Amino acid sequence: MSVVPVIEARGVRKRFGDHDVLRGLDLAVAPHEVVVLIGASGSGKSTLLKTMNLIERVDDGQIFLSGDDITDPRADADSIRARIGVVFQLFNLFPHLTVLENITLAARKVHGWRAADTRVRALELLETLGLAAKAGEYPDRLSGGQQQRVAIVRAILTEPEVLLLDEITSALDPQLVGEVLDLVRELKRRGTTIVMATHEMSFAREVADRVVFLKEGVLVEQGPPEQIFDAPQHPATAEFLARVRR
């Protein structure tokens, strides 16, 4: 019996003006799989994640979430987004709300969770992920790494079907990157389905079940980290990795 992918792109195309950013891309992500997207800036990594969350509408092709065609014009975009967790480069925390209020806002307002239940769940999650002491703090009292970890906790509070992470360490000072990546390691251990774009090659090697190399909107090569990083089959993959390792 075949497993239904958690999220799947079939023949996805996306154009901005005269520029084809995604060119007939296919990608299927299995339950509990961690797929890491690598490639140069402009390769289509972020655009692919945005189409998966309907921030950008595809020009052609389809995207399925647990078998549901979310690119169908009749689909309810808000209800679809409620099933997906997303974290971008910038933390997007509300400065006038505490950590706990930031984390629980969407669960209460979008998902309709009871305030008391949401608070209990949020505090439990903050405790297990080492952020309990920050629950009453405001974002400007946190380091960049702590703010990004709070953004991740907010995204996973409602147990989304898939978590999309777009270059979540790129806006951080190097010394703060480690604490954010530690949280992603913990999410992998918990079995979270993740699609992640990153420039952190060593982390991609460590955490990914599958690495996908994109170039100019095309999926050039994919496979286990040891294959992609140690024995790439496509010259473009080898050239890219040689360049980023310099």
UniProtKB/TrEMBL annotation:
GO terms for molecular function: ABC-type amino acid transporter activity; ATP binding; ATP hydrolysis activity. It is found in: Cell membrane. It is a peripheral membrane protein. It holds the Pfam family ABC_tran. Keywords: Amino-acid transport, ATP-binding, Cell membrane, Membrane, Nucleotide-binding, Transport. Residues 7-241 form the ABC transporter domain. SMART domains: AAA. One of its GO terms (cellular component) is plasma membrane. SUPFAM superfamilies: P-loop containing nucleoside triphosphate hydrolases (SSF52540). Belongs to the ABC transporter superfamily. PANTHER family: AMINO ACID IMPORT ATP-BINDING PROTEIN, GLUTAMATE_ASPARTATE IMPORT ATP-BINDING PROTEIN GLTL. This is Glutamine transport ATP-binding protein GlnQ. It comes from Microbacterium hydrocarbonoxydans.
